[in-house]
Amino acid sequence: MNQTMKKSMSKTAKRPATKELDLSQEIMSKVKTGEINMKPKWYFVLGSSLLFFAVVVLLVLAVFFFNLTVFMLRHQGPMRLWRLETLLSQLPLWIPILAVLALWGGVKLLKKYDFSYKKNFLLIIVGLVLAIILAAFAIDSLGFNEFWARKEPMRRFYQNLDPSLEGRHLRNTPRQGSGLQF
Amino acid sequence: MSNYQKLTDEELVGLVRDEDQELYRYLIDRYQAKLLRYAVYLTGDDDQAADVVQEAFIKAFVNLQSFNIKKKFSSWLYRITHNEAMNRLNRHQREVPILKDVDFASDLDLEDDFIKKELANLAKNCLAQMPIIYKEVLTLYYLEEQSYEAISDILRIATGTVGTRLNRAKIIMKKICQKQKK
């Protein structure tokens, strides 16, 4: 009896479940009868496209809601920032909550990509959060909020947010000497 | 038949997807024993392990079109098996996995050496007592002989984390084994 046979016999004796099991027979019969079917390629293409789309939408929403938070805080005047009570009573809290939720959702979905574990994900998140906050400030500084508050269909949204916006003259340039002229 | 056996896993996957689903049998034959051994280490139960591996092969077949041929098929398959085993373990969380009739290193002829056998038994018992996150890295690295890169892909953790867990696992294993000796 050669060495290989000896080995295989000892394995059979020790691990009957492993040796006796013939998964290929069982699985291939299911494949043949159509009990299990391969999902088509378009299904996965659609899935990854939807995932990418959802990440983009969530991150855009996060930027938008952070921008809206910045706008509302600025809109209330600089002194309001120091009065927490007034701030909390007048700032619609759902805006920052939605901003955080969109960001959280975006990060959760980003984790599905391979780079999330191949690269330093914490650093990626920190960079992403900073980029979103910077983008939010940039959008507000460039005067996009004032522009949207005057144009349909966003005008209604901004008026619902703060009815006082309607009668108020919104400046074109939020920061002196900078911003877009619409 | 021999022609197919010479093909790499990834080439075989391409053929299964585009030409002949019957060839999936070869992939099952290549990985059945390895995956069963890995699943047994994770679940600690032969029957559960068999179910896990069967389910993993079925899931792999169903989702074969989502596999990226540029990547390693074995890592992908181990990942599916790992997920399946984890799902089962979570379902039966209160059941403590106990390794019963498992070879510690099936390629070694342990019967010839009583001391080796004793050591293997001791190591087996120590491994069974280890927390799952350390057990899985130890098993993949030492028993399944996977590379850091492959383990990173299977467990979806950074390669640095693989090294850290491996080091901690060795320390924990040493402590458990020393305790057992006493």
Summarize the structure.
With 182 residues, chain A is mostly helical. Helix content of chain A is 72%, strand content 0%. In chain A, helix 4 (41-75) packs antiparallel against helix 6 (94-110) and helix 4 crosses helix 8.
What are the key terms here?
heterodimer, A: mainly alpha, 2 domains, 72% helix, 0% strand, B: 182 residues, mainly alpha, Rna Polymerase Sigma Factor, Chain: A, Arc Repressor Mutant, subunit A, elongated
What does this structure look like?
The complex is a heterodimer of chains A (182) and B (182). Chain A is an all-alpha fold and 182 residues long. Chain A folds into two domains: 41-141, no CATH class; 143-182, no CATH class. Chain A has eleven helices and no strands. Chain A has helices at 3-14, 16-20, 23-33, 41-75, 84-90, 94-110, 115-118, 121-141, 144-150, 154-161, 164-167. In chain A, helix 4 (41-75) runs antiparallel to helix 6 (94-110) and helix 4 (41-75) crosses helix 8. Chain B is mainly alpha-helical. Chain B folds into two domains: 1-97, RNA polymerase sigma factor, region 2, helix turn helix motif (Rna Polymerase Sigma Factor, Chain: A, Orthogonal Bundle), CATH 1.10.1740; 103-182, Orthogonal Bundle (Arc Repressor Mutant, subunit A), CATH 1.10.10. Chain B has helices at residues 2-6, 9-18, 24-43, 46-62, 73-91, 114-129, 132-143, 148-155, 159-181. Chain B is elongated and about 60 Å long. Chain B starts with a helix and ends with a helix. The interface between A and B is medium-sized, with 30 and 37 residues.
Any chance you could write out the topology, listing elements then pairs?
The complex is a heterodimer of chains A (182) and B (182).
Chain A (H helix, E strand, L loop, with lengths): L2 H12 L1 H5 L2 H11 L7 H35 L8 H7 L3 H17 L4 H4 L2 H21 L2 H7 L3 H8 L2 H4 L15
Helix pairs in contact in A: 4-6, 4-8
Chain B lengths: L1 H5 L2 H10 L5 H20 L2 H17 L10 H19 L22 H16 L2 H12 L4 H8 L3 H23 L1
Helix pairs in contact in B: 3-4, 3-5, 4-5, 5-8, 6-9, 7-9, 8-9
